[in-house]
Write a structure and sequence with these properties.
The structure holds 2 protein chains of 2 kinds. By secondary structure, chain A is α+β, with helices and mostly antiparallel strands. Chain A has helices at residues 43-51, 93-98, 108-122, 137-150, 167-184, 195-201, 219-224, 229-234, 363-369; strands at 2-11, 20-28, 32-36, 58-63, 66-67, 78-81, 155-159, 187-192, 204-209, 212-217, 241-244, 246-248, 251-253, 259-261, 274-277, 282-284, 292-301, 305-311, 317-323, 333-338, 344-346, 352-354. Chain A is globular. In chain B, helix 3 runs antiparallel to helix 9. The two termini of chain B are 45 Å apart. Classes of the chains: A alpha+beta, B mainly alpha. Chain A binds chain B through residues 51-53, 72-75, 78-80, 82, 84, 86, 88-91, 99-103, 133, 147, 151, and chain B through 190, 192-193, 195-202, 206, 210-211, 214-215, 217, 297, 299. The structure holds adenosine-5'-triphosphate (ATP) and magnesium ion (MG). Adenosine-5'-triphosphate is lined by residues 13, 19, 37, 39-45, 193 of chain A.
């Protein structure tokens, strides 16, 4: 049974323009489900409809199989964490945490017990008697989390909960949150505009743009087999390289000097308008796979990888990502190669016509390749 | 050594620049506030002639006279009662209106304008209107009373009712201001706090007591302070509605000061009352801040 089921959901604030449209998705119990998309695409709106803070204009919402479209927020048995934490500045941390237990009619000692448990889990015990003002951003964030946890609601909604934290703390909280969610077995619906957060945290994710679902799936599936140009360029850092091209003689022609042969299993007569290549699929060429020469306009060395920027024509630049550290100078001409079955082809509307068949390598495959005695 | 000199020079020149920036407001305050204040303090220690010039230094005699004067005691009583009648009711009323007007329903803008409209009426104009309404013969209040078969009242002429009548009209005059400030305070409260409460399912009353009022407390504190000071200083409506009567029942201190200075030409005595009023307001305000410190939650 799915924890949350959205059926043909439509939302319109003014009765004319639809902010989200035709949303159909099932979120499974215990799943970490991420809603991701650019600013203004309707993520918060969707989350708030699930929470009951916003009316659903059309369509139906089911929670645990029961129709919940018109239930009040507190009847839906869920908790929510807001971007700015929404802590009560005049209450102590303890009061803030137990605030959500109001409706559950627990005894004082049970409330205290739950509060202490949650505080313990999140390292808040020393701060229980403080006011939120006297906490750091990260600690406030944890108080907001604790407030959601104490309710023991099976579903937790989060709207960009990490966006007010600095980069380092965000990375740390990302993994903490994920572990906490696994530990408690909560169904999590998590909104973010940061594709890295989505990729690293999600069991499954949904990409929204202009209020419409672009793709739903596991992070790697979406990364490897994007449905369209938007998803391809939105997911992944750096984003996928895309360029206009023409197919001539079973070859993609990007410019005078850059051509990439079509894979064998592609129908050469279909109308392709654009080609996409992931930065890591552009490699330094050896003698027998040389495709074209790139003139390097920028180099970024990140320690574990090197990012090369090169021009493909007057206006457009592509990125290549090489593993390891490469001492390449700006202005250098570098021979480059792309394996043809790693390319993505899009039609003029940006829909994917051909996609690479990349898949993650499982550890079993690695083990099979090794001699048995080495695995001990 | 050299650095030290430099530093000194910078401090001195920046002090000069700072004073320059302050000059306009120091001048304004000086001419219209500090000078009259000290002049009043000075005059309160003198007997004065009818022009208000000090004639003879008498020390605290003016104050002694006041404390023994039954008329001054009536004034104090009237002033305190007036504050008591107007401030709590006025603020609770403004708060209720602000809470209502803070709901997002269609056409709420109309009500917001209506509720705050008294801010645009001068005290004089509204006093005249209220005087008509209180008029025993043609006023609407007596019409209503007789319509529901109650005895008619001499609103402004009966010593038992005059102060209350003036207080009612004052509440009406002040509501617009308090309402507007309180509404502003309400709208400043983060909507997420209420959304979190909706998810937790807390009731309206609990929400009001545990979120709205604490979050509004700085604004409430401001409104209470300003209202109390305003009530202590009310003058226009008393001058127009009752002229301090009947039987001095509405002769609040400010009005007594006015009468002593400009009708009885006893500026020394008037100054002494002004000084007492000043310390009275100062005391109440300090008391309020002391209480406020514990009760008000600043963000
Ligand atoms: N209360 C509202 N009334 C009218 N329009 C609204 C309201 N709330 C949001 N919108 C509109 O709905 C669209 C989606 O807003 P939403 O807040 O869901 O975006 P989002 O994906 O959460 O963006 P962000 O990443 O910036 O938070 C926006 O175009 C916004 O202008
Ligand atoms: Mg949002």
């Amino acid at each position: 049974m799915s924890a949350i089921h959205l059926v043909n959901i439509i939302k319109s604030y003014d009765g004319k323009t639809k902010v989200v449209e035709d949303i159909n998705v099932e979120i499974q119990e215990g799943e970490f489900f991420v809603l991701v998309g650019p600013s203004g695409c309707g993520k918060s709106t969707m989350l708030r409809m699930i929470a009951g803070l916003e009316d659903i204009t059309e369509g139906d919402l089911f929670i645990n199989g029961n129709k919940a479209t018109s239930l009040l927020p507190h009847e839906r048995n869920l908790s929510m964490v807001f971007q700015n934490y929404a802590l009560y500045p005049h209450m102590t941390v303890e009061k803030n945490i137990t605030f959500g237990l109001y409706k559950q009619k627990l005894s004082k000692s049970e409330q205290k017990k739950r509060c202490d448990e949650a505080a313990e889990m999140l390292g808040l015990t020393p701060y229980l008697q403080r006011k939120p003002k006297a906490l750091s951003g990260g600690q406030r964030q944890r108080v907001a989390l604790a407030r959601a946890i104490v309710t023991q609601s099976p579903i937790c909604l989060m709207d960009e909960p990490l966006s007010n934290l600095d980069a380092k703390l965000r990375t740390k909280m990302r993994s903490e949150l994920r572990q906490l969610q696994r530990l408690l077995g909560i169904t999590m619906v998590y909104v973010t505009h940061d594709q890295t957060e989505a990729m690293t945290m999600a069991d499954r994710m949904m990409i929204l743009n202009h209020g419409q679902i672009q793709q739903v799936g596991k992070p790697l599936e979406i990364y490897n087999q994007p449905n369209n140009e938007f998803v391809a360029t939105f997911i992944g850092a750096p984003p996928m390289n895309v360029a206009n091209m023409k197919v001539i003689d079973h070859t993609c022609v990007l410019s005078d000097h850059i051509t990439i042969p079509l894979p064998h299993d592609v129908d050469p007569t279909a109308s392709y308008a654009k080609i996409g290549v992931r930065a890591e699929d552009i490699t330094l060429a050896s003698e027998n796979d040389y495709l074209f020469t790139g003139e390097i306009v920028n180099v970024e060395i990140l320690g574990t990888e090197t990012l090369l920027t090169f021009a493909i024509d007057e206006k457009n630049q592509w990125l290549a990502k090489l593993n390891g550290q490469w001492d390449i100078q700006i202005g250098e001409k570098v021979p480059l190669s792309i394996e043809s079955h790693h390319i993505h082809l899009f039609d003029e509307h940006g829909q994917t016509m051909f996609q690479s068949k990349k898949k993650a390598v499982s550890s079993y495959q690695v083990k099979d390749a090794l001699p048995k005695e080495k695995l001990l | 050594m050299k650095r030290k000199i430099n530093k000194k020079r910078i401090t001195r020149s920046s002090f000069g620049a700072g004073m320059l920036y302050l000059l306009p407001s120091i001048l304004l305050f000086g001419i219209f506030l500090f000078y009259p204040m000290f002049k009043t303090l000075y005059l309160s220690l003198f007997w004065t002639d009818t022009q208000g010039n000090p004639v003879q230094y008498v020390g605290l005699e003016n104050f002694m006279y006041l404390f023994e004067s039954p008329s001054f005691m009536t004034s104090i009583k009237a002033t305190l009662l007036f504050v008591l009648y107007t401030v709590p009711v006025g603020i609770v009323l403004a708060l209720i209106l602000a809470l209502l007007a803070n709901e997002n329903v269609k056409g709420i803008g109309f009500f917001r304008t209506m509720f705050s409209s008294t801010i645009g009426m001068s005290v004089a104009a509204s006093s005249v209107i209220w005087m008509l309404m209180y008029n025993p013969a043609i006023g609407i209040f007596n019409k209503i009373l007789s319509a529901i078969h109650l005895p008619e009242l001499q609103w402004l002429l009966d010593p038992d009712y005059a102060l209350i009548s003036v207080a009612i009209s004052t509440i009406w005059m002040n509501t617009g201001f308090s309402f507007l400030i309180l509404l502003g305070g309400l709208q400043n409260i983060d909507e997420r706090l209420y959304e979190n409460a909706r998810i937790a399912g807390v009731g309206t009353w609990y929400k009001l007591r545990n979120i709205t009022l604490p979050m509004l407390s700085p604004t409430l504190f401001f409104v209470v302070t300003v209202s109390i000071i305003g009530a202590f200083q009310s003058f226009g409506q008393i001058d127009i509605l009752t002229g301090g009567g009947p039987m001095e029942s509405t002769n609040v201190i400010v009005y007594a000061i006015y009468k002593d200075a400009f009708i009885n030409y006893d500026v020394g005595l008037a100054s002494a009352q002004a000084v007492l009023l000043f310390f009275c307001i100062l005391f109440v305000t300090i008391l309020q801040f002391k209480i406020g410190e514990r009760r008000v939650h600043y963000q």
